Amino acid sequence: MWEQSKWMKLIPLLLTLGMFAVSGWAKDKEPEPYSPELVKRAEAGDAKAQLDLGRCYYQGQGVTEDKKEAVRWWTKSAEQGNADAQYLLSGCYYFGNGVTQNFKEAVKWSAKAAEQMDVDAQCSLGICYYQGQGVTEDKKEAVRWWTKSAEQGNAIAQRRLGVCYENGIGVAKDEKEALKWYAKAAEQGDEWAKKALEELTSK
Q1: CA gap 90, 107 in Å, rounded
Q2: E strands within 20-96?
Q3: Does the domain spanning 4-23+115-201 belong to CATH 3.20.20.100?
Q4: Is the pTM of this model over 0.90?
């Protein structure tokens, strides 16, 4: 097994990589193509159209890339309760894309999406609680949100739960539970979880 000190030093990096850098905040979904009709519906208050128009501006698809304009449309959609827009907006605030970086706003919108059972938002909210970004650091609350996300099949949350259970972070140390969550993440192709599973089973 890796040395505990090495393990602990890697945790913050592993929390940020994977979810944020690879998929998490980006929501890899193709938006409805940019068109005058899409703009018309968005301007008329259609939350889904506002979401997709924001994606078009964010990705520069069919229109000049404009992160600020993406944030404007996602805000309109998010305020109507669209979970995808809430989650994407939280990512913009987290990274400062198209808006001034603000962790509290990131947590606010991520929480709204997480409460609507958005699996990625739940995982991201766990990260904020774990790292104390925009909210008081609370490892137990991080575990609570990661559990909700993991139970819905999010591999990254499953892997993080494995780390928490193996090291007793925010929850009682339980190698059996660690193995369970590492295995679930590994089954979905999470390479880091596969390595962790090998290390733990070879003890």
Answers
A1: 7
A2: none
A3: no
A4: no
